[in-house]
């Protein structure tokens, strides 16, 4: 249709004619059931059943792969709770979620949306059931496996969540043993080869083709991704490869050792650097290099350790003393188990038993963050973890133990939102029920 | 039926379906043993659909599909997202017969869902200020739900 039109022009025109964009702008009436700053859910005017809702971003994206990662996570993150609300409102046990990509699949709207349909037994909606037809697709196994691993690895690297790929026995990110290398590469041994599908449009990749438009040939210029990389980004480097890169580039090494903050700024501005250092803790790397090159810890831009930190008052101040005092001063200290390898319960138990670490976490998280790269044990402990997440989780945990629950926003099921759900074991301290009792008592209106 | 594992991470796992409904049929399940979407956290839900989206893109490009569907019916033992490659005349049809609902029924559905959904992601504040956590309690049992809903309706009567 639109040889002469650029994709941007097409999109603009599509937007202008989009009925949902007009609804969202308030130009047309609709039955909104949920709305926040980025998304909206309304009742389908041609419902399969009563309560059938359609859910969409407020911004116009014609197809699923065009939704930027943040928007995507928001939309489909909320889908979970929203489906719960829908079921609870319509008093059903099940809810069908239906996505159609492309006209052949039943996509009718140029504004990407998904359906939430409350379901009951014998509701006559068997059409949604996915019934096996005995089709053998074993020939697709390798293609899908290799490409899925490649795109997921690329995505998780860019989102700084590469640790999600560690399944089963957790591999420390800097474990240099061949065994660890092998395990890390295990899910797809061939992943380092170029993917069969050079560039797969996932969330955040631009339109390779719109529904109905002819597919672009692989020889076409790789589309530029929203997050700055182009096409199939280079696979993230192993620590060993990274070390080589650093050795070969004295400038980078100097920056790492003397001015990590500046290097971070450069990385933030430069996608190529971003790809090289994806998922790497610059501060930590710098600390390691400093240690190996014999440079004193505070030689560069790192802020010095506060002379009197809340927990080290009175003790002689050196880069290590304040925290190491937690541990017996033996020549061969027990190896540190990284927080990333602990369940949340173990983590909280570990921290509970370390008064100084605990105090740092609760009262001086900034100070703690400064100390981490300078202290081997802390570095090892926080390796592969999101320090901020641990700080936040532990602070919430501590609050909860004191029965102060009101500041923690309950999610739809009354659970605290957060990763602790991935651990079956409840954290030490009061149970959720006890916390809720305390909460209701506090509100002065006990239920049941 | 033994579906072959294509991919897994800490949140999701992906299988190639042995008894496939289409030439290009992959299922995505959470690592957590849950039956419904609502039992997942926001992060887990988002991640599951992200994997589904990438899978759909791979089916679309790698298997020369003309479209894709992602469907979850919450009818399996464990929550399952089906990702299906679609082609013209592939014999699949997920369309439904639209129902005619009276305006009063639509208004009723709207009000009921809005009543429950306002707390999603601490969404926009409701008009009649239910206490946070109240709705969560109501989800515990259906019977209780019905009762509370009726009571709430009564409270609204001036």
Poorly predicted tracts of residues of chain A: 169-202, 204-235, 295-332, 403-430, 444-448
The average pLDDT of chain B is 83
Strand order across the biggest sheet of chain B?
1-2-3-5-4
**What is the helix content of chain A?**
25-40%
Strand order of the largest sheet of chain A: 1-2-3-5-4
Order of helices and strands of chain B: EEEHEEHHH
Assembly level: heterodimer
Order of helices and strands of chain A: HHEEEHEEHHHHHHHHHHHHHH
Measured distance between first and last alpha carbons of chain A: 63 Å
**What is the percentage of strand-forming residues of chain A?**
5-15%
Which sheet architecture does the biggest sheet of chain B show?
5 strands, antiparallel
- Computed over alpha carbons, the radius of gyration of chain A is 26 Å
Alpha carbon gyration radius of chain B? 20 Å
Number of strands of chain A: 5
Uncertain runs of chain B with pLDDT below 50, 5 residues or more? 123-140
Please report the distance between the alpha carbons of the first and last residues of chain B: 59 Å
Strand residue content of chain B: 15-25%
- Structural class assignment of chain A: alpha+beta
Helix run count of chain B: 4
Question: Describe it for me?
Answer:
The complex is a heterodimer of chains A (448) and B (158). With 448 residues, chain A is an alpha+beta fold. Chain A has 17 helices and five strands. Chain A has helices at 7-17, 19-24, 69-90, 141-158, 178-185, 239-248, 250-258, 260-269, 271-276, 282-293, 321-324, 344-352, 355-363, 365-371, 376-382, 387-401, 432-443, and strands at residues 32-35, 39-43, 53-57, 94-101, 113-119. In chain A, helix 7 (250-258) packs across helix 8 and helix 7 packs across helix 10. The longest helix of chain A has 22 residues, at 69-90. Chain A is globular. Chain A starts with 6 loop residues before the first helix and ends in a 5-residue tail after the last helix. Chain B has four helices and five strands. Chain B has helices spanning 42-62, 103-117, 134-138, 142-156, and strands spanning 4-8, 12-16, 25-30, 67-72, 81-86. Chain B has a five-stranded antiparallel sheet, with helices on one face. Classes of the chains: A alpha+beta (448), B alpha+beta (158). Chains A and B meet through strand 1, helix 3, strand 4, helix 4 and helix 17 of A and strand 1, helix 1, strand 4, strand 5 and helix 2 of B.
